[in-house]
């Protein structure tokens, strides 16, 4: 409730401020000498007495004003002649001397005519006595000539009022032009980046058409530019139809094609009529003024329909500026028709208020679009977080399942290794026990224990730890071979690094090496065994086991132990070669630099 009251208070305050140009009267210097009567004459009329301010009866006319004032004493300070408002150009003479031509030092935009003048007085113009002021007033525009009351006073008495009017009549108009050009560039860029939003294009067109109101600024480049003011007014008329289109679009209604075509067709037809001379420019100006007065009322009705009937909130933002703009066009129409005195057309200023309201609507739409985008981004982020959480859950589940598969695979491998190694030794122990061979039982039992240790040790091996696994094998083999009187030479310094090593891989390698050493002792009999690692061809890793025993059969021959060596090497992605030499046997295990996941160990025979 408080926010509504606060919003209503702001709306009322904005309405009061916005309506100020319609009812506010600028202050005039009360301490200065006021000149409120003059003799007015035209070429085709005799002189007559008039009161100031005075508006001529028709535009594009010339009139002469003669006024007088008296100074009782010579002033101690310089005096100034202050003219609060005149339209458009005044040639000012004091006591027969031309003291100023306002057409040379004022910015004259064009349609909105109206300037202020401050003329310094000096020399004999400051002497006591009667002084006469002659003003030749030219009004080449579309509004009748206008001259306000005159004031004579010191700088302290009149300068503040002059500066106020300079700010309002010249600087403010230039600020409005600068704002209009800035908004034109902004809407053009927005339209180029969002061509589907045609409202930006219509707003840019409205800015472009409105700039013809400032055609008078080209008077230094085009001397007869004021002859083109009726044509500029005709071009400016298309802005009325553009406002209809914008109001319909804000209401969410598609403008009819005939209305869009009227933006160019109606002003174009008027320009052709004026150029052909079929109708005088003054009559056309009155017709244009009638259209420009009634069109804002139609636009306001369109916005009221959108606000009250269609319940479009944005139409409310446009309705209040349209109401003020309609009042301003009524004011301007009365000035053009001569029913109201004054050279200032207020519609130019209120059009900026209207354009600002449209810009606010566009910014509101942009803000709502960004809010929707932010909401969509938040929704996407939330869904992405949910998906990521789901993926993490599935990943954890898959990892747990993979761990279970690895454990199952290791259990299967352990079972197979125990079956291939330990079960065979136990069977031999049982058979030897039945025959009463105690010495063989002890030997076989030790072999079974070593085999069990080999299997258990392989379970602690990680990636790139094959050399460590082989070192453990060496520690178990060396004491046994020493008891048998067999020398062991061991070197793995030159063995290349092998990646992808798993406990299964390590067990296969150790069993191959163990089988080669066992065969050297059992079938040699060897007195010296050499185990070394080095690099083979194309960067492969090699483990070479040599003995000085009796040369044995090559690969593809021999018992189950040799066949198991071949199968284990194939599982590792490598190969085993057995070479009979004159001084013994050489077993070479060739391995790739990276081992792949080993498949099941099924198919390995029992030695």
Automatic annotation (TrEMBL):
A GO biological-process term: phosphorelay signal transduction system
The record places domain Histidine kinase/HSP90-like ATPase at 504-595
* Segments forming a coiled coil: none
The regions listed as transmembrane in this protein's record are 174-192, 199-217, 229-250, 257-279, 285-308, 315-338, 344-363
Any one Gene Ontology MF annotation carried by this entry is: protein histidine kinase activity
Q: Which InterPro entries match?
A: HATPase_C_sf, HATPase_dom, Sensor_HK_TwoCompSys
Keywords in alphabetical order = Kinase, Membrane, Transferase, Transmembrane, Transmembrane helix, Two-component regulatory system
Q: Which SMART domains match?
A: HATPase_c
One Pfam family, please name it.
HATPase_c
Q: What is this protein called?
A: Two-component sensor histidine kinase
Its organism's taxonomic lineage begins at:
Bacteria, Pseudomonadati, Pseudomonadota, Betaproteobacteria, Burkholderiales
């Amino acid at each position: 409730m408080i926010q509504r009251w606060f919003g209503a208070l702001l709306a009322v305050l904005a309405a009061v401020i916005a309506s100020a140009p319609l009812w506010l009267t600028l202050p005039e210097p009360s301490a200065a000498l006021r000149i409120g009567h003059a003799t007015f004459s035209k070429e085709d009329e005799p002189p007559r007495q008039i009161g100031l301010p005075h508006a001529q009866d028709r535009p594009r006319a010339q009139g002469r004003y003669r006024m007088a004032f008296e100074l009782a004493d010579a002033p101690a300070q310089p005096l100034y002649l202050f003219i609060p408002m005149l339209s458009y150009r005044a040639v000012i003479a004091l006591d027969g001397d031309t003291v100023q031509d306002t057409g040379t030092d004022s910015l004259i935009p064009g349609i909105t005519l109206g300037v202020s003048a401050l003329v310094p007085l000096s020399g004999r113009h400051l002497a006591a006595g009667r002084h006469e002021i002659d003003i030749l007033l030219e009004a080449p525009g579309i509004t009748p000539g206008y001259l306000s009351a005159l004031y004579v006073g010191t700088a302290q008495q009149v300068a503040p009022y002059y500066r106020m009017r300079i700010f309002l009549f010249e600087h403010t108009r230039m600020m409005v032009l600068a704002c209009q050009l800035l908004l034109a560039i902004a809407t053009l860029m927005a339209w180029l980046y969002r061509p589907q939003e045609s409202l930006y294009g219509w707003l840019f067109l409205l800015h472009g058409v409105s700039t013809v109101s400032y055609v008078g600024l080209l008077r230094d480049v085009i001397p007869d530019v004021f002859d083109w003011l009726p044509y500029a007014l005709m071009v400016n008329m298309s802005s009325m139809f553009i406002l209809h289109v914008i109001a319909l679009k804000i209401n969410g209604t598609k403008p009819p094609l005939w209305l869009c075509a009227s933006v160019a067709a109606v002003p174009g037809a008027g320009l052709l009529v004026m150029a052909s001379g079929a109708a005088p420019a003054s009559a056309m100006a009155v017709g244009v003024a009638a259209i420009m007065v009634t069109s804002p009322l139609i636009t306001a009705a369109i916005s009221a329909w959108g606000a009250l009937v269609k319940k479009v909130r944005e139409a409310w933002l446009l309705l209040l500026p349209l109401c003020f703009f309609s009042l301003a066009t009524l004011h301007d129409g009365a000035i053009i028709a001569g029913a109201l005195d004054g050279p200032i057309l207020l519609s130019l200023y209120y059009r900026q208020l209207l354009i600002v309201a449209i810009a606010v609507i566009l910014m509101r739409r942009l803000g709502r679009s960004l809010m929707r985008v932010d909401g969509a981004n938040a929704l996407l982020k939330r869904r992405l977080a949910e998906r990521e959480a789901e993926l993490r859950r599935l990943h954890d589940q898959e990892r747990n399942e993979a761990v279970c598969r690895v454990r199952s695979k290791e259990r299967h491998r352990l079972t197979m290794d125990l079956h291939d190694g330990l079960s065979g030794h136990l069977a031999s122990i049982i058979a030897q026990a039945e025959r009463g061979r105690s010495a063989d039982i002890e030997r076989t039992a030790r072999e079974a224990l070593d085999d069990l240790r080999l299997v258990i040790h392989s379970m602690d091996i990680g990636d790139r730890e094959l050399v460590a696994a082989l070192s453990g094998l060496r520690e178990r083999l060396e004491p046994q071979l020493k008891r048998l009187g067999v020398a062991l030479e061991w070197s793995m310094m030159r063995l290349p690094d092998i990646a992808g090593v798993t406990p299964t891989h390590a067990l296969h390698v150790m069993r191959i090496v163990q089988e080669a050493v066992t065969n050297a002792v059992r079938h040699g009999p060897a007195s010296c065994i050499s185990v070394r690692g080095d690099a083979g061809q194309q960067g492969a890793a090699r483990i070479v086991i040599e003995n000085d025993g009796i040369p044995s059969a090559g690969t593809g021959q021999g018992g189950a132990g040799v066949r198991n060596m071949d199968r284990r090497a194939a599982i590792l992605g490598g190969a085993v070669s057995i070479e009979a030499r004159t001084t013994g046997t050489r077993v070479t295990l060739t391995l790739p630099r990276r081992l792949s996941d080993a498949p099941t160990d099924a198919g390995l025979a029992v030695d």
